Amino acid sequence: MDDQHGPAVLDIYRLGIASGNATFETEPPTWESFTATRMPEHRWVAVDRAGAVLGWIACSAVSDRCVYAGVVEHSVYVHPDAGGRGVGRGLLQALIASTERAGIWTIQSGVFPENTVSLHLHASCGFRTVGTRQRIGRQHGIWRDVTLIERRSPAVT
Predict the structure, then answer these.
(1) What are the residues whose beta carbons fall under 8 Å from the beta carbon of 132, sequence distance 6 or more?
(2) Which residues in the chain come in under a pLDDT of 70?
(3) Which residues are 53's β-sheet partners?
(4) How far apart are the C-alpha atoms of 111 and 19, rounded to whole Å?
(5) In Å, how far are 51, 134, 157 from 110, measured between CA atoms?
(6) What is the 3-state secondary structure of 29-92?
């Protein structure tokens, strides 16, 4: 993922926000803010043969404390028209491979429980449910739960 992908990445993010079940965010950030908060070596896009972006994945460090150096939080978004084509799985596999090469031992995320497609995708890629944070935040005035998921690398010990 690089600057040329920025408009498409943010558009897919905007579509995810509009779905109501992807994030607490109400607007995508600027491209500058997006790139400043995501690890450049662990950002990927899936593109079709014509170069159109079908989805993206990126992660951020969870803490600047050295004991958490091997833990990242990720987001993955697939364009609604590209669902069911293996885009999300391919992106997760790319992230898993790049983070393991870098010695990262845990990838985590928070997913709305209603986002069953994402929860099933993550489970099929080795993520487990850690628990549910009940009524952790409000979205449009409504309390929402978030399911915490993580994948502990079997390769990074």
Answers:
(1) 113, 145, 146, 147, 148
(2) none
(3) 47
(4) 13
(5) 30, 12, 24
(6) CCHHHHHHCCCHHHCEEEECCCCCEEEEEEEEECCCCHHHCCEEEEEEEECHHHCCCCHHHHHH
pLDDT in tens, 94-114: 999 999 999 999 999 999 999
* Three-state DSSP state, 1: coil
The whole-angstrom separation of Cα 142 and Cα 67 is 35
Alpha-carbon distance of 12 to 122, in angstroms, equals: 19
User: Inter-axis angle of helices 87-101 and 116-124, to 10 degrees?
Assistant: 50
Distance CA 132, CA 49 (A): 39
Cα–Cα nearest to 115, from 146, 153, 81: 146
Task: Give the global pTM.
Answer: 0.96
Contact 41, 34 (CB under 8 A): no
Query: Residue for token digits 């497609």?
Result: 117
Which pair of tokens denotes residue 62?
A: 């969870």
Distance of CA 7 to the CA centre of its chain: 17
Residue 44, helix vs strand vs coil: strand
CA separation for the pair 157, 155 (Å, rounded):
6
Neighbouring-strand partners of residue 138: 143
